[in-house]
Amino acid sequence: MRFFLALLVLAGLASGQEPDVRAAERAWARAITTNDAAALDKLLGDQLIYAHSTGIVDTKKDYITKIASGRQKYEGVDHQSMIVKPYGNTVVVHAQVHMWGVNQSGKFDDHLMMLHVWLRNGGGWQLVAHQTTKLK
Question: What CA–CA distance (Å, rounded) separates 84 from 104?
Fold first, then answer.
């Protein structure tokens, strides 16, 4: 009986995470398209691994510096599909996204497969890993 109750509690927690994580995804997209370094500082985990589809890997500090300076400018982010999988206080998001803007190589307009790992930290969600792969 206790095991069954524990499963119900865990299922309730997991189902309640999805709307919050989807909101965190939208907040991340809004922060990068508006160059909001303060919002990114709250949304990104201190040990962030941010791997771009170009092969460049940024730390939290590197990524926020790029965004704040305008060296990495996202004009738009469109989540075209999203799957959210909870694992305790961690959630994995797999999505297809359309991202466009300007980076150090010039204009980009990419359709990507994206993997995000979110960690519940102090009641909120922080992005701790990002990986994108270009789609044809």
Answer: 31
Q: Return the domain boundaries, the chain.
A: 2-134
Task: Return the closest-CA partner of residue 117 out of 88, 92, 85.
Answer: 92
The class that CATH gives domain 2-134 is: alpha beta
User: Can you give the chain as a three-state secondary structure string?
Assistant: CHHHHHHHHHHHHHHHHHHHHHHHHHHHHHHHHCCCHHHHHHHEEEEEEEECCCCCEECHHHHHHHHHHCCCEEEEEEEEEEEEEEECCEEEEEEEEEEEEEECCEEEEEEEEEEEEEEEECCEEEEEEEEEEECC
Q: What is the pTM of this model?
A: 0.86
Q: Which residues contact 20 (CB under 8 A, 6 or more apart)?
A: 125
The predicted-structure confidence for 75-134, as pLDDT tens digits, reads as follows 999 999 999 999 999 999 999 999 999 988 899 999 999 999 999 988 799 999 999 999
Distances, alpha carbon 100 to alpha carbons 13, 33, 74, 77, in Å: 35, 10, 6, 7
